From TrEMBL:
Keywords: Cell membrane, Membrane, Protein transport, Translocation, Transmembrane, Transmembrane helix, Transport. The Tat system comprises two distinct complexes: a TatABC complex, containing multiple copies of TatA, TatB and TatC subunits, and a separate TatA complex, containing only TatA subunits. Substrates initially bind to the TatABC complex, which probably triggers association of the separate TatA complex to form the active translocon. GO terms for biological process: intracellular protein transmembrane transport; protein transport by the Tat complex. It comes from the Bacteria. The gene is tatC. GO terms for cellular component: TAT protein transport complex. This is Sec-independent protein translocase protein TatC. It comes from Streptomyces bungoensis. Residues 275-299 are annotated as: Disordered.
């Protein structure tokens, strides 16, 4: 396909993806209060001085946070941010498909197979990480709010709370993709299972440090809630890679398959047995001096 056609197709794919995001964003704008309630309700039930958005109810613990929205344009900006975020997330099947449809024609068959596997397993893993963050955040928020002095009142801006929840969900979701990336490197032959197994001490320490930095709470239970599933996924990836390496070695020992060409060994066994290549025979002598259209018969 010429470059102009590639650019034209890219423009059409991007237009379809942006249009899907715009449509979902407009629909989500009418339900932005429900979206905010769904995102913040677990945290507010634990630490908020209001049990739900716009509903007054004191919580049982001694410390609580008052949810605030400051500024005249803050409610409009908040609604726009929530609607746009919901549009990008909910319209992801459409724009991801458009991206895939643009890239797929340039991939080989095995590359498409790996890409399908990555998407098929990557999306559930990301949802699992986001689901874990969604249920860990209330405990994290309670530990942080309990650090507030008795004489102080905690004011929690709603936009900051939404940014924190979104960031935590994205961080947890991406962290759950790490074992899948290791498996894909093993399937492509870049990384062996034995080498991955040799990294297990460093990976355990690295995952622990990452969990401690990713979770804003000093509570060790919150850190372990993120680190433990990633540890388990890492060792599952190592076990899969070791089995795949063993299968690959067994297949290589059996030789090429029926539809594969074996490598030819062109190295001679004994140089002395090579027969000399005879020189090219000389052209037959000109038998007649007659020429046809200026050329002799040999030409």
């Amino acid at each position: 396909m010429p470059l102009a056609d590639h650019l034209r197709e890219l423009r059409n794919r991007l237009a379809k993806g942006v249009l899907a995001i715009l449509v979902v964003t407009i629909v989500a704008a009418f339900f932005y209060r429900d979206i905010i309630n769904f995102i913040t309700e677990p945290v507010l039930d634990e630490v908020g001085c209001k049990a739900t958005f716009g509903e007054l109810a004191k919580v049982k613990n001694a410390h609580c946070a008052h949810i605030t929205v400051s500024g005249l344009l803050a409610p409009f900006t908040l609604a726009l941010k929530v609607a746009l975020t919901a549009g990008v997330v909910l319209a992801s099947p459409v724009w991801l498909y458009q991206l895939w449809a643009f890239v797929a024609p340039g991939l080989h068959r095995n590359e498409k197979k790996y890409a399908y596997a990555f998407v098929g397993f990557g999306f559930p893993l990301f949802l699992g990480g986001g689901y874990l963050a969604y249920h860990v955040l209330p405990t994290t928020a309670k530990v942080m709010i309990d650090l507030t002095p008795d004489s102080a009142e905690n004011l929690l801006p709603l936009d900051n709370l939404l940014d924190l929840i979104t960031r935590m969900i994205v961080v947890f979701g991406l962290a759950f993709e790490m074992p899948l990336l290791l498996v894909m490197l093993n399937l492509t032959g870049v990384l062996s299972g034995r080498r991955m197994l040799g990294w297990w001490r460093g990976m355990v320490v690295g995952i622990t440090v990452f969990a401690a930095v990713a979770t804003p709470s000093p509570d060790p239970m919150t850190m372990l809630a993120l680190a433990a599933p990633i540890w388990g996924l890492f060792f599952i990836a190592v076990a899969f890679s070791l089995l795949n390496d063993r299968r690959r070695a067994r297949r290589a020992s059996l030789g090429p398959a029926d539809d594969e060409a074996s490598e030819l060994d062109l190295t001679p066994e004994d140089i002395g047995e090579i027969e000399p290549v005879p020189a090219a025979r000389a052209l037959p002598e000109q038998t007649t001096a007659e020429r046809v259209n200026g050329y002799d018969d040999v030409t």
